[in-house]
Amino acid sequence: MTALARPPAVALVGTTASGKSALALAAARALPEVELVSVDSMQVYRGMDVGTAKPTWAERAEVPHHLLDLVEPWEECSVAAFQAEARAVLADLAARGRRAVLVGGTGLYQRAVVDDLDIPGQHPEVRAELEAEPDTAALHRRLTDLDPVAAARMEPTNRRRIVRALEVGLGSGRPFSSYGPGLDAHPADAIPQVGVRLPAPVVAERIAARYRAQLDQGFLEEVDALLALDRPLSRTAGQALGYREMAAHLRGEVDLEAALDEAVRRTRRFARRQRAWFRRDPRIAWVDAEQDPAEVADAVVARLAAALG
Q1: Tell me: the pLDDT tens digits for 170-191?
Q2: According to the annotation, is 16 in a ligand binding site?
Q3: Was 11 annotated as part of a binding site?
Q4: Where does substrate bind (predicted)?
Q5: Is the pLDDT score of 1 beyond 70?
């Protein structure tokens, strides 16, 4: 990182259900002084264990894991807050002479750590004012006046990006474009990345099988306990893959099979978006498996070891 010391580190990336966690654990078992750092936007929530495929307590006891259980499920965890936690963890690992394997599939969180992105802060009151304006074209004209560089980088119809750029510019007094090229840049001095890749149909089947296994592991009971809390789930936690569908079933809105089918469909769509996200990063060194990520475990561990030095 730019401000804090960084240990020898490498990131292991891939879509959901591609076997990343098991491969990272295998690497930690095989390589000395390695600790695992989760880069998953849902594993930060306490009490959301089964449905996020969080490492078990036995695995955590065997190998140190970081950036799990950071916030309560009724709280939000922004990318900037997560990045700050990651910086502190990596500085601690460096001070102790340890090595880090980052593992996860949340693309923006991963890039925030790998590239130490300069992330703008949030300004909720400004954002609420902007959202009250229904005319996206008018917002884009306002952005053109405020920050023409940022306005030129986005489509006039992309309301989400326009509102975000205005929120940052108006709230911070600093142009959104001044935060650098961000995701469009792929600097060579970033944390190296190794990817595990399975054919899309295999990932699709693994997603369905994992949900079935999670039901056997108590997923419904976990969601029921979350719904029984005295505070509602945060917007992000409540929309988590599988949790939204299981909650709908527990509220009597759909039967279990329909909820499961929708969870599988939504997670498969998410995996497609992940593939597109990671495909844009030319720095990732991919290791391809045909059916089972275990078949390339040795090759992945070797790649990780080489990147760690």
Answers
A1: 999 999 988 877 788 899 999 9
A2: yes
A3: no
A4: 16-21
A5: no
Record the tokens describing residue 94, joined without a space. Answer: 């460096």
- Taking the C-alpha atoms of residue 176 and residue 182, their distance in angstroms, rounded to an integer, is 11
Q: In sequence order, what DSSP letters do the residues of 215-281 get, joined into one string?
A: HHTTHHHHHHHHHTSSSPPPHHHHTSTTHHHHHHHHTTSS-HHHHHHHHHHHHHHHHHHHHHHHHT-
User: Which residues sit opposite 142 in a β-bridge?
Assistant: none
pTM of the model: 0.88
Angle, vertex CA 200, rays to CA 197 and CA 204, nearest 5 = 115
What's the token pair of residue 4? Answer: 């804090």
- Cα–Cα–Cα angle for 187, 190, 191, nearest 5°? 150
The CA distance from 171 to 167, in Å, is 6
Task: Confirm whether residue 52 is marked as ligand binding.
Answer: no
Positions of E strands within 49-167: 65-66, 99-103
19 is in an annotated binding site: yes
| Domains of the chain, start order | 9-117+191-308 (3.40.50.300), 124-179 (1.10.20.140)
Q: At what angle do helices 297-308 and 20-30 cross, to 10 degrees?
A: 60
Q: Return d(Cα 77, Cα 71) in angstroms, integer.
A: 7
Print burial letters for 44-68: b (CB count within 10 Å at least 16), e (below 16).
bbeebbbbbbbbeeeeeeebebbbb
Q: What share of the chain is helix, strand, coil (3-state, %, to 5)?
A: 55, 10, 40
Is residue 18 marked as binding?
Answer: yes
CB atoms within 10 A of CB 203: 22
Strand 65-66: give its sheet, edge to edge: 65-66, 34-38, 99-103, 9-13, 193-197, 285-288
Tell me if 14 is assigned to a ligand binding site: yes
> Is 169 within any annotated ligand binding site?
no
Dig out the tokens for 27 from the structure: 């690497």
Contact at 8 Å (CB) between 104 and 14?
no
